[in-house]
Design brief:
The complex is a heterodimer. By secondary structure, chain A is mostly helical. In chain A, helix 3 packs antiparallel against helix 8, helix 5 crosses helix 11 and helix 7 packs across helix 8. Chain A is globular and about 65 Å long. The relative contact order of chain A is 0.14. By secondary structure, chain B is of the alpha/beta class. Chain B folds into two domains: about 220 residues, Rossmann fold; about 60 residues, Alpha-Beta Plaits, CATH 3.30.70.100. A six-stranded mixed beta sheet of chain B has the order 6-7-8-3-9-10, with helices on both faces. Classes of the chains: A mainly alpha, B alpha/beta. At the A-B interface, helix 1, helix 4 and helix 12 of A face helix 2 and helix 3 of B.
């Protein structure tokens, strides 16, 4: 599996994709931070967690939706198009190792991307404030798990097509659906809404951004990843009856 | 080393390979011959462990590819048709990845990569990106990845397809140099190429095994199917009718200003040329044509059917 992780990291960084995604994320989330900080100062808040970081994390969540499908779109689609996946299947690697190798590489880029934003709280240190370290750790954990869920969804969709553009577009759409699932309160009854709210990916972040960790949320996000990754492995296995292309 | 017994591979209703059996002994080099769509690639993919057979048993190095695919894959190097590659990786970086993927122990990786680079003549381009190399070099990179980890079995799917004649010779020589300690199966749709490299030829058509023989034995079975082109300073119709009467000529047909003959054996060539000169004509062209796959199938697939028909007529 480490062979696949290394190979994917090399290709992320030689194709400049990882640099691009990380740089864009840092730039835009930096702007969010500037705006959120200005608003926090204007409104004269005292609670950094509720007044600043909550909004910062929710804004980053939104931008992750835009960027993360770019990290997964080529993982399998490109290998299918090039025909290199066929070659990979002749090496002594199990399908699950191929999927996890690619996934871990994407997770590392995500970690690097989120890690880069730690410069934002560091900028506050000269102002002599006490950072809510515990609450922020919960927020980052939530963002990372949510990002991991986005990536697992993207990797499955990438395994279904040869087209990177299609993979990215479908991933956006699916993730967007998971976001807006709970928006239509008026149209559905209370029981349906309850089910939908349990399924909604984005609502899972609210406890995290306020500094709490709910095991139900963690379980849901981890399960979400596991289901999509297992599905991806199944999908690679379909060559048995569908052929290579 | 490779045992294929009653291999059938179906994709939905489509039967890609239909009850094919053959085996390859250790150190043997076998050519897999057939037209496009004959089931060559599917057979090779099953042998390479890409997907298991629908029915039948395939063993590589004694390991069943359905039950223990990774053990079978460890003994095997595969070269897929068109040599797919990662354009953004360097030759060295790519081979390093392959060595890891093939689970070459970390201390032995560098010498293994060196060996593959040396065997395939990639020394000059080792730091270049695979995507920037010529097709011939990319084909060599493909062979190098197959060779990595010293597999006992090499499965090469059309290693010379899409190359210019010079590169074809180079790759063919490379494959030849790999014979000996390794067991090699390679596919092609060119008979002469298979005859040059392989000790044995397996011919498939429409998913079925048609013939299995040594190149010499095959040539013997194909005797009597030697296409010959003749042109003289005379009306082709006259030439055609004259040559049709020559002993050993099985078929004569007029094609534009030339005549295409099918002769039984090489001795007929001399008689053809003599007949032309005896008539006082000047021979402008006389050349043998390589047997096309079509000719081969005419002999090996359809002829036996005709023979059976004839035999049953005789019995009746």
């Amino acid at each position: 599996m480490t062979a696949v992780v290394r190979k994917e990291l090399v290709s992320y960084f030689t194709s400049l994709l990882a640099y691009m995604v990380i740089a864009l994320f840092l730039a835009v989330s930096g702007f969010y931070f500037y705006s959120n900080l200005s608003f926090f100062l204007l409104s004269g808040g005292f609670d950094l967690t509720r007044g600043l970081w909550q909004y910062q994390f929710l804004d980053m969540r939104q931008y992750m939706l835009t960027l993360l499908p770019l990290l997964t779109m080529r993982l399998f689609a490109e290998e299918r198009r090039l025909g290199t996946l066929e070659l990979m299947w002749t090496y002594p690697l199990r399908d699950v190792e191929i999927v996890l190798g690619k996934y871990v590489a994407a997770l590392l880029v995500l970690a690097l991307m989120l890690g880069g934003t730690l410069i934002q709280p560091l900028l506050l240190l000269p102002a002599d404030v006490t950072l809510p370290v515990g609450a922020m750790a919960a927020g980052y954990l939530g963002l990372f798990l949510l990002g991991a869920a986005f990536l697992s969804c993207g990797i499955l969709i990438s395994a279904l097509t040869e087209s990177q553009v299609l993979a990215a577009a479908v991933t956006y759409s699916v993730l967007l659906l998971f976001w807006v699932l709970t928006w239509n309160e008026a149209a559905v009854g209370a029981p349906v809404l309850w089910v939908l709210s349990q399924l909604s990916l984005f609502d899972r972040l609210y406890t995290f951004v306020r500094g709490g960790i709910d095991t139900a949320d963690v379980t849901y996000l981890v399960l979400f990843c596991a289901v999509f990754l297992a599905w991806t492995v199944q999908c690679l296995g379909s060559r048995r009856w569908r052929g290579v292309k | 080393m490779i045992e294929v017994s009653h291999l059938t591979k179906r994709f939905g209703d489509f039967v890609a390979v239909d009850d094919v059996s053959f085996s390859v002994a250790a150190g043997e080099c076998v050519g897999f011959l057939g037209p496009n769509g004959a089931g060559k690639t599917t057979t090779m993919r099953v042998v390479a462990g890409i997907f298991p057979p629908t029915t039948g048993v395939v063993r590589v190095g004694g390991h069943d590819v359905s039950r223990d695919p990774n053990a079978a894959r460890r003994t095997l190097g595969y070269f897929p048709e068109n040599a797919p590659f990662y354009p953004e990786m360097s030759v060295e970086g790519y081979l390093g990845f392959v060595a890891r993927a093939k689970r070459v122990p970390s201390g032995e990786r560098a010498p293994h990569v060196e060996k593959a680079i040396g065997a395939c003549g990639l020394g000059e381009v080792r730091r270049r990106l695979v995507g920037k190399l010529s097709k011939g070099y990319r084909q060599r990179v493909g062979l190098a990845q197959a060779l990595l980890g010293d597999p006992q079995v090499l499965v090469l799917d059309e290693p010379t397809s899409g190359l210019d004649p010079g590169q074809v010779t180079e790759i063919r020589e490379l494959v030849k140099s790999l014979r000996g300690e390794r067991t090699i199966v390679f596919s092609s749709h060119i008979l002469s190429e298979v005859s040059l490299v392989a000790q044995r030829v397996v011919i498939v058509d429409r998913g079925r095994l048609v013939a299995e023989d040594s190149p010499a034995g095959l040539a013997e079975r194909l005797a009597g199917a030697l296409p010959l082109w003749v042109r003289a300073d005379v009306d082709p119709t006259a030439l055609c009718s004259t040559l049709a009467g020559v002993d050993g000529v099985e078929r004569a047909e007029e094609v534009d200003d030339r005549v295409r003959l099918i002769v039984a054996d090489e001795s007929a060539i001399e008689r053809v040329s003599r007949r032309v000169t005896e008539q006082g004509w000047v021979l402008l062209e006389l050349h043998r044509e390589a047997l096309t796959l079509e000719d081969i199938f005419l002999r090996l697939v359809r002829e036996p059917a005709q023979r059976i028909a004839r035999d049953s007529e005789r019995r009746a």
